[in-house]
Amino acid sequence: MLTIAPFRGLTYNYIERKDLSTLVAPPYDVISQEEQKAYYQADSHNVIRLILGDKRTGDSDWDNRYTRAADTFQRWQADRHLIRAVHPCLYLTAMTYDPGNGLPTRTRWGIIGLIRIEDEGSEVILPHERTFSAHKEDRLKLYRACGAQFSQIFGLYDDAENVVLNACRESADLTPQMDFQLVDGTRHRLWILEHRLLFKKVAESMQSKIIFIADGHHRYETSRNYRNILRARHGRKPPDKSYEFVMMYLSNMRDEGLTILPAHRMLKRAPEFQEASFFEKAKRYFNVRSFAVSPDEMAADYQNFKSMLLDMGEERTAFAFFYHGSDKGFLLSLRPDVRDEMGEDLHDSLKKLDVVVLSRLIFRKCLGFTEEGLDDDEIFHYQSDTCQALSSVASGEYQMMFMLNATRIEHVTEVAENGLVMPRKSTYFYPKVLTGLVFNKIDPKEIISVP
């Protein structure tokens, strides 16, 4: 049974400072080194100092990016740059953004609250992507140093009647407590909800639901690891201690503001690639059609390439393939009789996924990568900005790219419901959930008030 609860969130002092635009940032794992520096320079109280502190020469066990984040976190609370709610709250958010492609602006609604952490294998909170230990070790060090969760896990739930969100919107004031716009034009609003009857209604409406983790798999597994550490130190009773919960941003998967972008596969190098032999192998599995491209104009033509791929992808799995130095692009559409050649070890729901088709038939059978080789971060990168991806191939920064269509939400849920996981970077839910709206302070002595 799913348990959701209000909590005494920490926020920037929105009473004294109305414009929070220079204080927030995306999740730590999508921030480049250049962006990290820009956030540092944007404001001395930007959340980057908590979620992705700088490394310094001479860092030690007692002075490092994690201990400095902890010191900063305590100092900001002491000088009231961060303030904690007096009573438990739920937080309603609205993110208005431009989805691109000439589409009108969209608004994605979400609710931030605490969710009881489930053990691995639970049928209540379902992951859909693989995780890697190095990322979890990094986040666990931050948890242990700061005793807090700074970023929400992004979860999806199914609510055909939109009961939960409607109840929250009815309880919200006309004027949000936070309302600001980022330089990219994205508008962010947040309402702080304190009504106990609302908490009870939300809890009752959510208890029979399943949450699909859209983003933040590493952080969710880290929250479980941290919970287990504190259980060993402080015990399991009473059962509603603060470390039994994790902060989540929850959005209805039927929300019209939900956008999924593709994560195009970028290869620095493919040692076994030779054009003739590659296409000879590829034609066993795919129908291949070439089209003329100009390396100097590849990025400018990205909308045409996306349209071609989208049209072909309506009926079958398809990819657009580009490699540096070629004056051609290629459309590869899966032949209808070869999906079973992906392997008997694959569940039918995984065989439907474009990213799995690409991995099994292109990367392994046509380019000769081993399963372990597919996890080589020196070779494989991911890019959701199609224009940028094409530019990187035209410049030679990458040897090749495979353009994908976005994974469909029904495929995400089907995989998760079957207890399976997708390859990493199978989905890119856009925009990312902003970091810096609400923080969750974890006091081992605190008991969460479950409605």
Give a topology summary.
Layout: E1 4-5, E2 10-12, H1 33-42, H2 48-51, H3 65-78, E3 82-84, E4 90-97, E5 106-116, E6 125-126, H4 133-146, E7 148-149, E8 153-157, H5 163-171, E9 178-181, E10 187-193, H6 196-206, E11 211-215, H7 217-234, E12 245-252, E13 259-261, E14 264-267, H8 275-282, E15 286-292, H9 302-313, E16 318-323, E17 328-334, H10 348-351, H11 354-364, E18 380-383, H12 386-395, E19 400-403, H13 409-417, E20 428-430, E21 440-441
Parallel strand pairs: 6-11, 8-12
Antiparallel strand pairs: 1-5, 2-3, 4-5, 4-10, 5-12, 7-21, 8-11, 9-10, 13-20, 14-18, 14-19, 15-17, 16-17, 16-19
Written description of the protein model:
This protein has 451 residues and is an alpha+beta fold. It folds into two domains: 4-259 and 431-441, no CATH class; 263-405, no CATH class. It has helices spanning 33-42, 48-51, 65-78, 133-146, 163-171, 196-206, 217-234, 275-282, 302-313, 348-351, 354-364, 386-395, 409-417; strands at 4-5, 10-12, 82-84, 90-97, 106-116, 125-126, 148-149, 153-157, 178-181, 187-193, 211-215, 245-252, 259-261, 264-267, 286-292, 318-323, 328-334, 380-383, 400-403, 428-430, 440-441. Strands 1, 4, 5, 6, 8, 9, 10, 11 and 12 form a nine-stranded mixed beta sheet that branches. Helix 3 (65-78) runs parallel beside helix 4 (133-146) and helix 5 packs antiparallel against helix 6. The longest helix has 18 residues, at 217-234. The radius of gyration is 23 Å and the shape is globular.
